[in-house]
Design a protein that fits this description.
By secondary structure, the protein is α+β, with helices and mostly antiparallel strands. It has one helix at about 10-15, and strands spanning about 25-30, 40-45. The chain has a two-stranded antiparallel sheet. It starts with 9 loop residues before the first helix and ends in a 7-residue tail after the last strand.
Length: about 55
């Protein structure tokens, strides 16, 4: 279960990523589905807690 979720615009995401160097690993990208009959969604999880966008 997600502890918190935020909707981000492309501009918001680019601002967050700009905080890191180009060769930093910043998180993980994975797919998840509600069940075997549901479509999968791609999810990105930052390693660091994002407190402000």
């Amino acid at each position: 279960m997600a502890q918190s979720m935020q909707r981000l615009s492309k501009d918001d995401l680019l601002k967050l990523l700009d905080r890191y160097a180009d060769d930093d690993f910043v998180g993980v990208l994975f797919t998840a589905a509600r069940d075997i009959h549901s479509d999968q969604s791609t999810i990105f999880v930052f390693y660091d807690k994002v407190t402000e966008v």
